[in-house]
Amino acid sequence: DPGIVHFALPALRRIKDQIDSGQWSDSGSLDRTIRQIVSEAKDKADVWKQEQKEACKKENMTDRLTEAEEQIKKSTSTDNTVNNEMLERIRSLKRKMERDEITVEDVTSQLQTIETQADEALISEDIRKETVRSIYRQLKRQEFSVAPPELIERDGNSFVRIVARKPSGKTAVCQIGLDG
């Protein structure tokens, strides 16, 4: 194992130098010392491998968090409050990971929750868009003069308002929330 060799090599070189200078005469004691050096090197190599695995997991999770953050920023969802909340949760997870305050497994679980929430927001927005299109077309078919749909945000909620008028003066106002 190259890791064991890496960690044992300095101590084994010292022993070689000691043997060359005649400091070792007892082969039994030399054998025990070498076995101890190799055992310690194996332990150090195991710890190093585990640390490398954890660092790799952490780096991969940081990349996943960054990807999720970019996806949310690019999303077509118009509910900025929800988007901002998800982005802040992702940033918080990144900070906690940097300070080793959270495990990769916990981050994975929380990220899955955020991704599900983002998917639901996109689906809700798609439903609303289709509903707005349908209502708009229906009002046009009924000979209403329809103003372009207007996105309105109030108290952390958003809805699309469609205002339509007939030449006779009749008015229809539709407000479509995220639930359609």
What does this protein look like?
This protein is an alpha+beta fold. It contains 4 helices and 4 strands; from the N terminus they run H-H-H-H-E-E-E-E. The longest helix has 48 residues, at 27-74.
Q: Please, what is the average pLDDT? A: 86
Distance between the termini: 62 Å
Low-pLDDT sequence parts: none
Proportion in helices: 55-70%
Morphology call = rod-shaped
How would a crystallographer describe the biggest sheet? 4 strands, antiparallel
Radius of gyration: 33 Å
- Strand elements, count: 4
Spell out the helices and strands N to C. HHHHEEEE
Supply the number of helical segments. Answer: 4
Q: How large is the share of residues in beta strands?
A: 5-15%
The structure class reads alpha+beta
Q: How are the secondary structure elements laid out?
A:
Blueprint: H1 2-20, H2 27-74, H3 80-98, H4 104-141, E1 145-146, E2 150-154, E3 157-165, E4 171-176
Give me a quick take on this structure:
69% of the residues lie in helices and 12% in strands.
Short descriptors:
four-stranded antiparallel β-sheet; alpha+beta; 4 strands; 180 residues; rod-shaped
